[in-house]
Design brief:
By secondary structure, this protein is an all-beta fold. The chain has no helices and eleven strands. Strands 2, 4, 5, 6, 9, 10 and 11 form a seven-stranded mixed sheet that branches. Strands 1-3-8-7 form a four-stranded antiparallel sheet, with no helix packed on it. The protein is globular.
Length: 119
Amino acid sequence: QVQLVESGGGLVQPGGSLRLSCAASGITFENTENIIAWYRQAPGNQRELVARMYAGDTTYYTASVRGRFTISRDDADNTLYLQMNKLEPEDTAVYYCNVFAARDRRGYWGQGTQVTVSS
């Protein structure tokens, strides 16, 4: 059974930083056949891709976060991270961890963590 548990969200002022974590069980982030990602959903908006890691260490970022956010993983702890710098009010959303499991041919979601950027 795959479980993803996010943490690290909170309230931060514009220009500040946060690091989100996603701890996994039942699946290995290190497996290069899996695609691991962070999504976010703001009120009234559709869920959107923020950053993705695939084929090992290849990364992709949506344009609005490129240069400010960094996706990474710790294989020893089987944890996915999203380092968010220079946060803007537009980054306010619930952030979700996602993994597409190659073995199952399906995706799994965490429960989400709220990020609020406000002065």
